[in-house]
Amino acid sequence: MVDTGNIFRVRCVDNTLQRDMLTVGQIYEVTKVHEKDDYYELSGLGRFSRSRFEIVEPASADDDDVGEDEKK
């Protein structure tokens, strides 16, 4: 179960009929979870079915830097 009081991130795994709004593989911030209706409210984008996403564990700031160093 996700703590609905906190903003968390999800990765899009299905953008069927929403290609103009969502990109598969893109990570989005969830600002509100609607358990009853089974959807996430994404920051600045609106509401989408939870089945379109997988939860991404929060990464530490150090993890982001490592990815950039490996590309150089």
Describe the structure.
The protein has 72 residues and is of the alpha+beta class. It has one domain: SH3 type barrels (Roll). It has 1 helix and 5 strands; from the N terminus they run E-E-E-E-E-H. The chain is globular, with a radius of gyration of 14 Å. The termini are far apart. The C terminus is likely disordered.
Question: What does this entry show, briefly?
Answer:
With 72 residues, the chain is of the alpha+beta class.
Provide keyphrases for this structure.
SH3 type barrels; five-stranded antiparallel sheet; 1 helix; 15% helix; disordered C terminus
Number of strands: 5
Question: Are there runs of 5+ residues with pLDDT below 50, and where?
Answer: 60-72
Query: N- to C-terminal separation?
Result: 38 Å
Write out the strand line-up for the largest beta sheet, numbering strands in chain order.
4-3-2-1-5
- The arrangement of helices and strands along the chain is EEEEEH
Helical proportion? 10-25%
Which architecture would the CATH scheme give at its second level?
Roll
- The radius of gyration computed from the alpha-carbon positions, rounded to a whole number of angstroms, is 14 Å
Q: Quickly name the level 1 CATH class.
A: Mainly Beta
CATH topology: SH3 type barrels
Shape: globular
In percent terms, what proportion of residues is strand? Answer: 25-35%
Structural class: alpha+beta
Largest sheet: 5 strands, antiparallel
- Whole-number total of structural domains: 1
Q: Count the DSSP helices.
A: 1
Average of the residue pLDDT scores: 80
